[in-house]
Fold this protein.
Amino acid sequence: MKIKFCKCNCGEQITNIKNTFIFGHQRRNKKLLKKTKEKIRQSQLGRVPWNKGLKLEGRPHTEETKQKISNTKKGKYAGKDSYWYGKKHTPEAIQKMSESQKGEKNPNYGKRGKKHKPESLQKMSKAQTIRFQNNPGTFTGKKHTPESKEKLRIANVGKRHSLKTKRKIGKAHKGKVMSIEARQKIGAAFKGEKHPNWLGGKSFEPYGVEFNRELKERVRKRDNYICQLCQIKENSERHSIHHIDYDKKNNDPRNLITLCRLCHIKTNINRRQWELTFKQLKQKAI
């Protein structure tokens, strides 16, 4: 029997020798004219699909049929074989799609709070693993250029997670412990000049001789052992003493203020703003 292949160069064998294309392949790589598209669209307006509202309840696919459907679809429409490869939606099309899925129109509307079963999660995880093993992501092995990094940084400036999102992140990470290797990697990635708050090694400058235990204790006592920002009272962990003007050698008590450890960490960012805030606090106290 003579073997015949589809003329669209898909490499698939034709079962019926009389045909030159597999059904549907004759239109491959051919674009419809705008007039033709409009005619098709107009002809479909108002038509109700024969299967609208019908469900597979009572007559679901067998596992064998599901497997056959899955095998016929695998890898067929991925990458360059996809009809959408290299194309993009217009802003108008994106807006239309967004409007069509908003609120109650969205199939997942009102389904918040429902969780996948452990078996479903396992299946999804396995499917994604196989997917990325066979077809690695487009960004695999690549790095952002300095220009791209700057663009991403500018786009995220001023953006903050909502309280709800923060709680979700906290809940997701609760009980998880980083491995020693992961901690070392993170530490190395933010060490020295690599850290966004790096100020040329200012933190390694020596303190004045006057900045001793006695002076720190006097400042804590003056501030009633209370953090001057969050008003938390000192407990087993001692509060820190902060230099308002960030000059480590200016140990005048008027330049020192009591802060808890967490508030003291905050003062490493936006130094000029914190300096003004603390000076205002001092003036109010007077």
Observations:
- The mean pLDDT is 82.
- The CA atoms of residues 245 and 275 lie 6 Å apart.
